Amino acid sequence: RDAGTHRSFFAAAATRATERGFRLDEFALSAPNMRPERLSELLRVRGIHGVLVAPLPGQQVSLDFDFSEFAVVGLGTSVSQTPIDRIADDHFYAAKLAYEQCRALGYRRIGLSITASISRRLEHRWWSGYLVAQQQAAPRLAIPSLMPETRDQIPPLLNGWISRHRLDAVIFALRDESQMGCAPPHVGLVSLSVPQPAGQVAGIKQDEAGLGAGAVDLLVATLT
To answer: Do both 148 and 171 map to the same domain?
Structure first.
């Protein structure tokens, strides 16, 4: 739970679990000497029948764990190669909404900047939402996204990409000052993941608290 988003997930889930008459305990498969078989036995001994799976680190998309004896809900989309229920933001709609709002404000040449690693992790939902919105609003305007592999590759490529495609607005996947601060001052900036609903950067506020609480509600419904 290093990232602030993950801490928000956990805090909201713990609060909702208490409200529903349960307690949320944390176990880490990455802990020293913790193996999948040992964790499974530990859960059974403690009488734990429901499991919330936190977002996985990096590009990990599956867990070496037998969930067959438990009710399971995954937080976010990272667990994609293990067949479990998941609850997550609608990233497709968020990107589509961001593009449409830019259009409503008068911007016309709108680009998307996102790393390939993040796009893969989200199964390309942000990218897809952007592409659909662009096709619907301006089918003849095909602006390629700026999509290097890692975040540190974006700043040196950003201004050339903006100039080459004559962009007047850029939608960024994350609110990252090292990226957004490189953009020319005349370009509108939008983030698909702002920390607060009201701030200096316009964008989409993902509802981590709602997701954490909703995941517990779904898990409780599965158990009962």
So the answer is: yes
Q: Which tens digit of pLDDT belongs to each residue from 121-156?
A: 888 999 999 999 999 998 888 899 999 999 999 999
195 and 106 within one domain: yes
Distances (CA, A) of 157 to 95, 146, 152, 167, 208: 22, 8, 10, 14, 31
Separation of alpha carbons 74 and 68, rounded Å: 14
**How confident is the model over 189-222, as pLDDT tens digits?**
999 988 776 667 789 988 888 999 999 999 999 9
pTM of the entire predicted model: 0.84
- Residue span of the structural domain in which 116 resides: 91-203
**Total count of domains within the chain:** 2
Q: What CATH number has the domain bearing residue 178? A: 3.40.50.2300
